[in-house]
């Protein structure tokens, strides 16, 4: 919760500084820059899991059906055992 309030305070302060120096164009540029940073971080694909960083990768084209078939086969094998 503290981070949310600190982020809001920093965002307000940066917006005020951008507006003071460059007007609404500066505020729009600031929002665009912060959005680009957030998108780049999101698209980077690293997640913190169990104390370690793990790189996630999307399956290649055409492999989704193979993955689903393998999961279905493993599930049906477990149910019959």
From TrEMBL:
Query: How is this protein named in the record?
Result: MFS transporter
Listed A to Z, the keywords are:
Membrane, Transmembrane, Transmembrane helix
Query: Transmembrane stretches, by residue range?
Result: 22-40
Record the organism.
Streptomyces coeruleorubidus
Origin superkingdom: Bacteria
């Amino acid at each position: 919760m503290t981070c949310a309030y600190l982020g809001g305070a920093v965002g307000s302060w940066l917006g005020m500084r951008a507006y003071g120096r460059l007007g609404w164009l500066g505020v729009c540029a600031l929002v665009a820059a912060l959005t680009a940073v957030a998108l780049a971080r999101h698209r980077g694909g690293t997640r913190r899991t169990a104390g370690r960083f793990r790189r996630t990768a999307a399956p290649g084209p055409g492999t989704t059906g193979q993955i689903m078939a393998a999961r279905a086969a493993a599930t049906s094998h477990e149910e019959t055992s």
